[in-house]
Amino acid sequence: MKKDLTRGLVGVKLGKKQIPDREIDTDSLQRAIAYYEHDPKFRSLMMLLATTGLRLNEVITPKWKDLYIDSVRKKHYVRTETKRHGVRHALISS
């Protein structure tokens, strides 16, 4: 589109208290993981999201080459792009 559709619209500004809390509590997470006990792909995805703190897009966009081992610490990491186009190195728990 060549025409700016947002022209004339007022931006939305929310205070910190108005932004909803998007964290999931431990009990809810454990129930969800137990519910998907027979779906190993979804269960693994939920566990990965919960243990790394990564966003879904940060999990699904990296390539195999972005997974690496830190030989000094002997830990696995994934290199991923953040929401604001930064680079993040997230620890993958084993």
Domain unit count: 1
Proportion of beta-strand residues: 15-25%
**How many alpha or pi helices?**
3
SSE ordering:
HHHEEE
The termini sit apart by: 47 Å
Q: Which bin fits the share of residues in helices?
A: 25-40%
Structural class by sheet pairing and helices: alpha+beta
Question: Low-confidence segments, ≥5 residues, pLDDT <50?
Answer: none
Main pleated sheet: 3 strands, antiparallel
Average pLDDT rating: 85
Q: Over all CA atoms, what is the radius of gyration?
A: 18 Å
Q: What overall geometry do the principal axes of the alpha carbons give? A: extended
Strand arrangement, major sheet: 1-2-3
Total E-strand runs = 3
Commentary on this structure:
The structure is a single chain. With 94 residues, this protein is α+β, with helices and mostly antiparallel strands. The protein has one domain (25-92). Helix 1 runs antiparallel to helix 2. It has helices spanning 26-35, 40-52, 56-60; strands spanning 67-70, 75-81, 87-92. It has a three-stranded antiparallel sheet. The chain contains three helices and three strands. The longest helix has 13 residues, at 40-52. Strand 1 and strand 2 (75-81) form a beta hairpin.
Spell out the key features of this protein.
3 strands, alpha+beta, 94 residues, 3 helices, three-stranded antiparallel β-sheet
Could you provide a short overview of the structure?
The chain contains three helices and three strands. By secondary structure, it is of the alpha+beta class.
